[in-house]
């Protein structure tokens, strides 16, 4: 029997090995589209492509600057922009600084200090004071640490600190939030963070801050500003001679804090400065605090953090093999040097690089010592000295070694939650005028999510077809918003009911195509089903958490949700125009419905709010709201890519859902932000705006929800109920 005859005699309904459900990555070489071999990174390329265009425009504008007056105008503009992006800062409240104990050494003493940068938000710190200070106040250096669990207690950082002290500088070292004695997710039994190292300690609450319309950077910058407040009041310190330095994450803080605090005379950020062009081309946008809310969209690059404070003394410290691109460092340094030349103060600008990785080197340390000696007016030798490090006991600040145990400190999470509560109260107040509120919600959701109205839909590319009993599966791809494609499966029933379902699964378009699966239930009931791999999922994703992509989107004022929602609208219109299957089964569709699972639910909600042709919406296992993410200390990190930065300044998911009234909307298996079944009372509160909208439209029965996850058999009954 021939191979063809064997295929013909196979029973319908059996998926044969050659019947791959992949559209652009077929297992056989003759069914593989080489043009899309890098499809895994399509979302990243799309977002960074936009970012690079914005950065090119910024660079062109900077290149046009010729005079000192033009540089001054740019500085004023940068000051305003940075404050708009990061601020407003809290009001200055009493520091309530307390010296917890003092450690005396042969040629210096250490005062361990706790102060409150905000009420109840404790900063652990150590003030290193040389013993041989003269009667005149001395220069001081604020030392901020990179991503080590120990913060400034690490041997590398202690070495630099104690060398500065031996050269006569007062050094004030502070713990960044989430490090040292300020772990915000501390487990006393394990004596470590429950969520990981400093990167996680920053990015976990940082994501919540972005949703609220704030940022992790804001909290860390304010800690630094308040540290300067403390320094200038110390009698040992000359307030006109204050410097700042730090490496890695400390380089980030050095650049940020100096950009916002004019009292800092000299700044020496180390192993951080590069530019966003090279960063995006290499390792991508890093921790939460290293990304400003809509920073690139507003023309902000690393160099601007330095330009804004010129011509005050500046030293950029770098290494040639750092993961922060050395080419980007050189380009940033070349740009910043321009403003110092325009001011005629080239001697205030320095750039040193050494061969090495992401690490401190002897050459760079000596350059840093010399820089502060020159510009803070404390002559001496820049030699790097051997020093005796303080023991863990000697450098401990609090009684227990953690503010969470010793003082019960506020956290970024708890402070941001208070801000979120204020935002949500404003939303509730706005909802008193429901019609006006919902109009504003739709407009705000488009703006904040970065949604773009789809242009004319291109012609789909057909890549294969196979038959199952009672329906056909066809494979296509169509151009998405950018240069990427949207692979999708089209399930076509033998007997159409004139209706279609767009089915969104967060993992893969084929996740529910198996026999007996959810999509098969719809097609066997006469529905045409379109199941896509939206960019970043299935064939168009690598299975990674999309953290880099989410941060890149925030930088350019967009969101993964908004991009995907635009593509769902694109597919909806493709179906609405006509389903051309290239067979005698051309289908005219009169209604299109949407089904989404878990973290695809926000995508479908946004799409449906913007596209009235999505006539019915069913959400399976969705989380209830963005509110539920910022209110849960331990939220589900996998939900973050489906959030919109700044959303809570104008809307939440229930507000968006309310715009769908009177269309049929059902939510089943609703969870909270941690992924646990939502509490009914909480849902009634969160969904009150939806119920009010449906009541106003006299369509109360068209909105239903439950926190109970249906079984497979119950699910099909749910489908029937939804379709009534």
Low-pLDDT ranges: 1-18
Strand order of the largest sheet: 1-2-3-5-4-8-9-10-11
Class by alpha and beta content: alpha/beta
Proportion of strand residues: 15-25%
Number of strands: 20
Radius of gyration: 29 Å
Describe the 3D structure.
This protein is an alpha/beta fold and about 725 residues long. The chain is built from 23 helices and 20 strands. The strands form 3 sheets. Strands 1-2-3-5-4-8-9-10-11 form a 9-stranded mixed β-sheet, with helices on both faces. A 9-stranded mixed β-sheet has the order 12-13-14-16-15-17-18-19-20, sandwiched between helices. The N terminus is likely disordered.
Layout of helices and strands:
Elements: H1 3-9, H2 42-63, H3 68-86, E1 98-104, E2 108-118, E3 121-130, E4 138-144, H4 155-166, E5 170-174, E6 186-187, E7 192-193, H5 198-212, H6 216-232, E8 237-247, H7 249-260, E9 266-270, H8 276-281, H9 302-307, E10 314-319, H10 326-342, E11 349-354, H11 362-375, H12 403-406, H13 412-430, H14 434-449, E12 461-468, E13 471-479, E14 485-493, E15 499-504, H15 518-524, E16 528-532, H16 547-555, H17 560-577, E17 591-597, H18 601-610, E18 614-620, H19 626-630, H20 653-658, E19 664-668, H21 680-686, H22 688-696, E20 703-706, H23 712-723
Parallel strand pairs: 4-5, 4-8, 8-9, 9-10, 10-11, 15-16, 15-17, 17-18, 18-19, 19-20
Antiparallel strand pairs: 1-2, 2-3, 3-5, 6-7, 12-13, 13-14, 14-16
